[in-house]
Amino acid sequence: MKIGPIGVWPPVVLAPMAGITNSPFRVLCREQGAGLFVCEMITTRALVERNPKTLRMIRFAESETPRSIQLYGVDPETVGRAVKMIAEEDLADHIDLNFGCPVPKVTRRGGGSALPYKRNLLRRILREAVANAGALPVTMKMRKGIDDDHLTYLDAGRIAVEEGVAAIALHARTAKQHYGGVADWEAIARLKEAVEEIPVLGNGDIWSADDAVRMVAETGCDGVVVGRGCLGRPWLFADLENAFNGDDTRTRPSLGEVADTMLRHAQGLTECFDQERYAIADFRKHVGWYLKGFTVGGAVRRELATSESLDGLRESLAKLDRDQPWPPNTDTPRGKSGERAKVLLPDGWLDDPWDCVVPDDAESDISGG
């Protein structure tokens, strides 16, 4: 799969996930298999204002290549400035634009999965991004639309092609679905039929390497984007590489091997954040994902989920049964789930799908991604 000048094999992309796909996690995933590994979402305003937190978030390890940044923005001029900064200062090799985030604090400002409803505003943002990217490929990730009555993905796909976007990823849910229900893989197939000129990547309900291969076979998409399926499972990328190369070998680590990975993950966060207590607190959310399916006593689980230091975490991990084998039937949903009652949008957002008005409070004044 080619994304601009970048060859990607296997055709696999790590989805940008807020608070998850920082450098330590990307490195763990990248060690397992090849692909594109995208950093967590970065707000364009914070980037152009050189917010210190944001600049820390776009740091890459020396081993990371190509480097991929995902940007979120609503104002075309600000998006263009952010893209130009990345290109001129060699901050990344690939830029992805977020039009898929469904969380209320994003959609109520007209961003994320709300934005493609405004077709001309989407066009202006893509035009500014591509014009300022130089040789860097610009891609976009989106959802089917706001809800079933306001689907936008086919129009957005054609606009992306016309404005020079290098590839499109579709999370086959609406913003209203959030992460609930079942992903509509047929929508991925319809997008691929409508957008033949550039790669289309499918996203949604890939819990195993076999799911990824099946998605490509059923939809005709060019590659896959993996998000929640790799939570607590960075070795999924080894399985994905094997699967796309026709090898049925799958990684099935023992609990001891999982514990070693957990410790490496926590150590990486400590080095990344420069504050051990903060790093270990950040790591806690990963504990349940790593241990899913294993038999672990409640007391040890609580210790791991409340650790405050690297030494404390190490001591708790030492209490695990290292010889316990990989549990069966664990290729199941993990992470967020559930549907929204409604999608929060700016006042009057649905009145006119063609206007280019940027909401007054569209560009978040909250620093960071």
Features:
14 helices, alpha/beta, two-stranded antiparallel sheet, 369 residues, 11 strands, 11% strand
Write up this protein.
This protein has 369 residues and is α/β, with parallel strands linked by helices. It is 39% helix and 11% strand. The chain is built from 14 helices and eleven strands. Strand 3 (12-14), helix 1 and strand 4 form a beta-alpha-beta unit. The mean pLDDT is 95.
Net shape: globular
Q: Helical proportion?
A: 25-40%
Mean pLDDT score: 95
Strand order of the largest sheet: 4-3-11-10-9-8-7-6-5
Profile the largest sheet.
9 strands, parallel
Q: State the total count of DSSP E strands.
A: 11
Assembly level: single chain
The proportion of strand residues reads: 5-15%
Summarize the structure.
This protein has 14 helices and eleven strands.
Write the layout of secondary structure elements.
Layout: E1 2-3, E2 6-7, E3 12-14, H1 23-32, E4 36-37, E5 42-43, H2 44-48, H3 52-57, E6 68-72, H4 76-88, E7 94-99, H5 104-107, H6 119-132, E8 138-143, H7 153-162, E9 167-171, H8 185-194, E10 200-203, H9 209-219, E11 223-226, H10 236-244, H11 255-273, H12 276-291, H13 298-305, H14 310-317
Parallel strand pairs: 3-4, 3-11, 5-6, 6-7, 7-8, 8-9, 9-10, 10-11
Antiparallel strand pairs: 1-2
Helix pairs in contact: 1-10, 1-11, 4-6, 6-7, 9-10, 11-12, 11-14
